[in-house]
Structures are given as structure tokens and as C-alpha cells.
Amino acid sequence: MPFLLDHVDTVVLAGGLNTVPLFEDYTPGYKALLEFNGKPSLCYTLEALRAVPQVGRICIAGPEAALRPVVGAQDHAAYDFVASGETLIDSIYSGLGHFAESPMVLLVTADIPLITPAAISDFLRACAPVEPEFEQNLCFSMVPKASFTGAYAEFPKGFNRFRDVAIRYGSLMLADPRLLQNTKATRRLNSLYNNRKSPISSALATGLHVGLTYVLGVHLWHLLTIEQMAHIASRRFDIGLIPLLVNHPEITIGVDEPADYAFVKQQLGG
Predict the structure, then answer these.
(1) Where are the alpha helices (DSSP H) in the chain?
(2) Where in the chain are the domains?
(3) Would you state the pLDDT for residue 76?
(4) 191: exposed, middle or buried (C-beta count within 10 Å: 0-12, 13-18, 19+)?
(5) What are the angstrom distances between the C-alpha of 32 and each of 12, 15, 29, 124, 182?
(6) Chain center to CA of 44
């Protein structure tokens, strides 16, 4: 049966630190607090979420003392806070635990200030008709290369090339909180995250079978489609890994490097 997404609780992942100098005299700190036009990245994300009718309760996974003041005095009661943990995966687990009774939870990072309500709505719309094969599922966003037009066409990031399409991964996910009870899946996800800096290492961290399949069938020879790779990984993870294409390149632009900062600043007119 398809997912029921008329009221989706949401976790904003806002605990990430940026230690890379983004501009001259930059003081490293929380990505969520990086300002554009005098407004923190977190606020851009929250404004986009609140403009989407399907979005229900919002929980911010991050340091409450640092983040609550920036959401505005009138909005203090609108958001819950949970500890972010040391890694992005820890923050995801913390947020899912907060909404443990929700059927599915939307996950979004706080460092994508170009995000729009349309991107969120279209991702949820893409999730809605999915008929999951597994009891526990994780939908994740991908943006096809053809969507990178205009200013985004020159943005200096690489693509993952499958047989059917080249994509960049987005920062929107829809997850079943019951994933926390699946130790096999969480162990693989932790390993994947810990090896994220290298495409080949991260692939092999998922397990020898899935890793070699990705390295040979996608990374080297582009033999497998997205759906084929997701099906193989789902079997090994024992959860439904569901890739969904959305035509919104803005959800791929997290501010991690000076080029990211310069691009976002240009797009926002700051």
C-alpha cells in the first residue's frame, strides 16, 4: 500500500560543523548558522518547510542553545529540539527516535539555503505512489543531470553515472522510524557513512557483494540502472532503498566548500 503523506513529521538535520574556510576571515561553526543576506541557512530551510501544507511537526536535530534564538521569538513553540550526535547518521537516528510513532519521517539538512517549497512538495509527491516491497523503507532524492540548467549547469560537482541516467544525490529523504530496530540496516548505513569520502570505499563498506556490484556495474562500466542497483542493495540491507528523481538541483547544493558558498551567495543576491 502506498505511503500516506498528507501529514509528514519532519527532522531538520542542523548539527553539522563546517571546518573549511569558506571565505576570508571565516570563523568555522555550525552550517545551520551560516548567513546569507543576514539570515541563517536554517531559517531558509524552515521557511520552505512551513510553506508546504503536507509538513506536520518539525524537529530540529542540533544544539538547541545555539539554534533556538535564530528561529525567532514568535516561533519558539513551533519546533522541538533533539541532540544532534557526533555525525549526520547519529542526528538522523536521534530525529527518527523523536518521531518513533510516525509512519514516515521527512529528513532534510539545514545547509541547503536554496531549497524551495516546490522541491519539497515534488519530492513528497514522488514518494506518495510508491508501493513498498519491504516492511521498512528509505526513500532518497536524486536529481538528473538534465535538470542542471542555467546557473546550475556550471556548478562544479561531479555526477554518479548509472546506465540510464547521471545523477547527483539530494538532501531530502523519507524514512521509516522502524529502521532504528533493524540492526543489520543501521550497521551497514553507519559503515557507509564512515567511508563516505571515497566512492569506492563507501561502496565496499556496504558489503563485498553490493560494493563490487556498484564498483564494477556502476562506477567503472555503467552497466546497471538506478532501479537495478537499488534492488540489489535493498536485498542486502534488508530494507527498501527507493531512489526518486526530482528536477530540483537546489537540493544538491549543501554549503561545504568555498565554491558552494560563492554559488549560493550569488543565487540569493547577497
Answers:
(1) 41-50, 64-67, 88-98, 117-127, 183-194, 199-205, 208-214, 226-237, 258-268
(2) 8-182+239-268
(3) 55
(4) middle
(5) 10, 7, 9, 23, 30
(6) 15
Amino acid at 88: L
- pLDDT tens digit sequence for 138-164: 999 999 999 999 999 988 778 888 899
Q: 8-182+239-268: which CATH number, 3.90.550.10, 2.40.30.170, 2.30.30.100, 3.20.20.70?
A: 3.90.550.10
The C-alpha cell at 58 is: 518539525
Strands 240-245 and 137-144: parallel
Number of C-beta neighbours around residue 25 at 10 A: 5
- pTM for the model stands at 0.90
Could you read off the pLDDT of 44-58 as tens digits, one per residue?
999 999 999 999 999
**Residue with grid cell 536485498, as numbered in its chain:** 235
The neighbour count for residue 74, using CB atoms within 10 Å, is 7
Nearest CA to 231 among 155, 175, 162, 169?
162
Torsion of CA 128, 106, 149, 215, to 10 degrees: -90
Name, in order, each residue with C-beta under 8 angstroms of 260's C-beta and a sequence gap of 6 or more: 22, 253, 254
Helix (H) or strand (E) holding 62: none
Do 48 and 116 form a contact (C-beta atoms < 8 A)? yes
Tell me, rounded to whole angstroms, the distance of Cα 21 from its chain centroid.
23
